[in-house]
Every structure is written in C-alpha cells, then in structure tokens.
Amino acid sequence: MAPGAESAIRENSRPRKLQRLGVLSGFAAGAWLGAAEAPTKLVSVGISPIVISLIMVIGVFLARWSLPALILGTSSIRADLRRTPHLIVWAILAGCLWAVANTMTIFAIRDIGLSIAFPLWNSNSLLGILWGVIFFKELRDAGWRRWTGVVGGALVMCVGATLLAVASSTQAPAAHSLRGVWAALGAGILWGTMYIPYRKAYLSGMNPLSFVTFFTFGELGMMAALAIGYLGLSPLWLQLTMAKDVLFWLMLGGFIWVIGDVFQQYAAKYVGISRGIPLSNTNQLWGLLWGILVFGELRGSGASTYLQVVGGSLLMMLGVGAIAFSSAGGKEQTQWKEAALRESRRYSIAEDFVEARMQGEQIAGEVRPPRSPLDWILVAGATSIFVLFATMARAPMMSFHSGPAALLVAATFVLFLVCGVALWRTTRFN
Amino acid sequence: MRQPYNSDQHGSRLTNVLTDVHFWVPVAVLIGGLLLLKSIH
Questions:
Q1: Phi-psi category of A143—alpha, beta or left, where left has phi over 0 and alpha has psi -120 to 50?
Q2: What's residue B1's pLDDT?
Q3: What is the reported pLDDT for A282?
Q4: What integer pLDDT is reported at residue A388 of this predicted model?
Q5: B27 interaction partners in chain A (CB closer than 8 Å)
Q6: What's the count of helices (H) and strands (E) in chain B, helices before strands?
Q7: Which residues in chain B have Cβ-Cβ distances shorter than 8 Å to A107?
Q8: What tens digit of pLDDT does each residue of A56-72 get?
Q9: Domain parsing of chain A, residue ranges
Q10: Considering the entire predicted model, what is its pTM?
Q11: What local confidence, expressed as pLDDT, does residue A150 receive?
Q12: Around A201, how many Cα atoms within 13 Å sit in the side-chain half-sphere?
C-alpha cells in the first residue's frame, strides 16, 4: 500500500478508535467509582459525614499525586504545566466545585433521603450536555439520531437511576424538606458545571493525569475549609483521632475513587462531556451491585423492590447503550476542532500541540521527559502513609460475602486492565 | 522546552482568563453553591 493511502486510512480510523476508547474509559470509570463505595460501607461508627468526606479526600490527595507520578512522571506534568499554565486556575476551581457539591449531597441525604436526592444530583449529566453544546460545540452537526441517542439515553438513565435509588433507599428520609431538594439540585448543578474545566483542559491538550494533580489542591483546600468552618479545629481533630481505626478504609475508598476519576477524565477527553458524564454515572449500578451482593443490602425486601432494581438496571443499561452507540461523527469532530482552536488562539498554545493531543499523540520530535527521583519519593511516601494507616485499621464486624466480592473485584480489575492497556497502546497515556 | 518568562505575556494571560466566560460560569456557580450551603446549614 502506498504510504499516502496508509496515512489516509490511519487518519480516518483514528477518531473512531479514540471514540471507542472514550466509551471504554466511561465504563471503567463507572465500575471503579462504584467500587469506591465499598470501603466506605465498612465504616459504621458515629463520625460526622463531613469528617468522612475529608478523610476520603486526604486519600484522594495522596492518590492524585502518586498515581500520575507513577504513570506519567512529574517531569511530564511540569512540561504540561509550562505549555498551559492558565489551566491551574480551572483545575483548582473544579476541585472546589467538587468539594462543595460533595458536602451538599451529605445534607441532601440527611433531609430527603437517598431515593430522592440521588436522581436529583444525577441531573448533572443533563447540565453537562448543555454546557458541552453551548461552550464546546459538542453535538453540533451531529444529526437527530445522535441527539436522540445522547439526550434520550441520559433521560432514560435518569429514570433508571430514580428506580435504583428508590429501591436502595433502606431507610425513610428524616424530613421531606425543600432544603434537601435544593441541596441535591445544587450538587447536580455544581458537578455538572465542574465538567467545564475538564473539557477545557482536554481541548487545550493538557494530560488528564496532569490536570488531576492540581484539581486536588482545590478539592482538599475547600474540603478542609468546610470541615474547619462547620466543626471547628479542635472538634475536627478530636473526631479524626477518634476515627483512627477506620481512617484506612476511608482513604482506600478515596484511592479507588481516583482510579475511577482518571478513567472519567479520559472519557471526557475522548468522547466529550455530553457522553462521558452519563457513561461514568453507571457507578450507581456498580455501587448497588456491591451493596446487594457483598453487603447483603435489601435482604428481606419485597418482590417490588427487586423489580425496581431489575427495571432500573435495565433502563440504565439501555440509556448507556444509546449513548455508547452515538459516537461523534466527522462533522461533529470538526466542530470540536474549532472549539480547540479557540483555546489554542486565546491562550497562545501551539496548534500542532493541541491537534496532536486531541488525537492522543505527541507532536513530531517531542521527547517524553525522563523520570526523576521525585516520582519515586512521591510513590514511596504515599505507599508508606497507606501502610501506616493499614496497620492501625480495625477489621469491621459486619456481614460480608467474600465470593461475590471476589467476582466484583475480578470484574473491576479486568476493566482496569482492558482499558489501561487500550489507553497505553493507543495514546501512551497522552 | 522552557518558555522565556515575559511579564506582558503573563498580564495578557491573566486578562484572557478574566474575560473568559468559561471562567466566570464555574465561579458564579461556586459562589452560588457556597451561599446555598451557608443557607441550608
């Protein structure tokens, strides 16, 4: 085959390959974000929800520095930062949005219960679609089929999520108040808006692994400020010392959550936020699987509850299928390139760099910076902290089915390996 | 490759950030979220 023809075939097949990669990343994100709930279920002592959230975020912080250092290296992160320094602002902003939204969900669950709160904040996917269309030219020139697939799929997923949330709500809400509805809607709006910085970063060519290292400063800073603001420094410290037996499980939850979030970032990069967010929202399905099969939730429930679970799961899978089969076509991809061009011109980022990164590639002649001792110091430091807290951890006394747990862990790791290898082969994590 | 530091470039970058609608929408939502959190707590 002539070199020109070979290159043309490659150019045509590359976007499709990246779309498939984005969809796969969305599925892997759902599995890992759902699995992150498992360690938190082991915690049943009387700790303030804000403290639980703060401890998870500390685990998240450790993971967000050690994983990128291990996979990419801090030199690559620094190189990324030199090209797009303005994105630090958006990364920190996104972290702050996440922390406030997460705190709101605590209040929403307290006031209106999980069954009403979860579907309300799951509306973040609809807002994500709106921001994607308005700001990043997603779904432009996509045709009515893709519009129906994405918007219809997201709506069907919301209905499925409602059924699952109703079924998984094991206790009656404390109070049906308007305050809880506002908190849940607020969380959905904040989380939906958090994807504006995500998409902006990836249209500018920033590596998702670089973005999350700065995102976490906003996340930990805002969460610490909220915890100190609500509880006060001394009561917060007292609760942290009282919770030393369970710190490890919560930090482990945060660590697993980060792996899911990294896959979510790659989904947002390669399929956009309009498709990436609903695909990642399948975490609710995985969380429910962990709850029912491993922790024996819903035991003794009536047939109607199980019908809701089966119906909700089928609807979620239907919605996910509709979105997964509505990948962006050539015309829509041209619109994405225009959105990327806006970023490139506005912030003086080399167009060839942005173009290459959109294709998950390096620019011609670009050399990946070498690893530095700092990478290994970060990895060793984070590992040591986790080992230290693991030695203090207490094995919880609760119902736990190890057989289904082993199956779910195996399925989650299979997705990790399949998606990780596909990302490495196709993009070298670019 | 390290880019030479230029204060004009830094100033124009700041102006670009502060005049970018992508910046103000998340900022407005964050402020709204903090106010809402304050009112529901």
A1: left
A2: 40
A3: 86
A4: 92
A5: 93
A6: 2, 0
A7: 37, 40-41
A8: 899 989 998 888 888 88
A9: 20-427
A10: 0.84
A11: 87
A12: 33
Tokens representing A250? 């919560």
The pLDDT averaged over each successive group of 10 residues in chain A (430 residues) is 55 80 92 84 69 87 88 88 91 94 82 71 84 90 86 86 73 62 88 92 88 91 91 88 85 89 89 86 83 79 80 83 82 88 90 86 79 90 92 78 92 95 88
CA B30 to chain A, closest CA, distance in angstroms equals 6
Determine which of B20, B31, B35, B38 to mutate to test the interface with A (most A C-beta atoms within 10 Å): B20
**ipTM value for the complex:** 0.84
> Which chain B residue's Cα is nearest to A177?
B40
Residue A367: burial class (beta carbons within 10 Å; 0-12, 13-18, 19+): exposed
Distances A48 to A56, A158, A169, A388, B38 between C-alpha atoms, Å? 13, 29, 20, 23, 18
Asked if B25 and A94 come within 8 Å (Cβ–Cβ), the reply is no
Cα distance between residue A329 and residue A139, in whole Å? 9
What angle, rounded to 10 degrees, do the helices at A208-231 and A247-271 form? Answer: 140
Residues of B (21-40) whose Cβ lies below 8 Å from A: 21-23, 25-27, 29-30, 32-34, 36-37, 40
Q: Which residue, A419, A109, A111, is CA-closest to A280?
A: A419
pLDDT of res. B5: 44
To the nearest whole Å, the CA of A363 is away from the closest chain B CA by: 13
**Amino acid B7: pLDDT:** 55
pLDDT of the residue at B9: 63
Residue with tokens 């590992």: A383
Asked if A131 lies within 8 A of B25 by C-beta distance, the reply is yes
Distance from CA of B34 to the nearest CA of A (A): 7
Relative orientation angle of helices A114-121 and A153-168, to the nearest 10 degrees: 160
pLDDT at position A200: 92
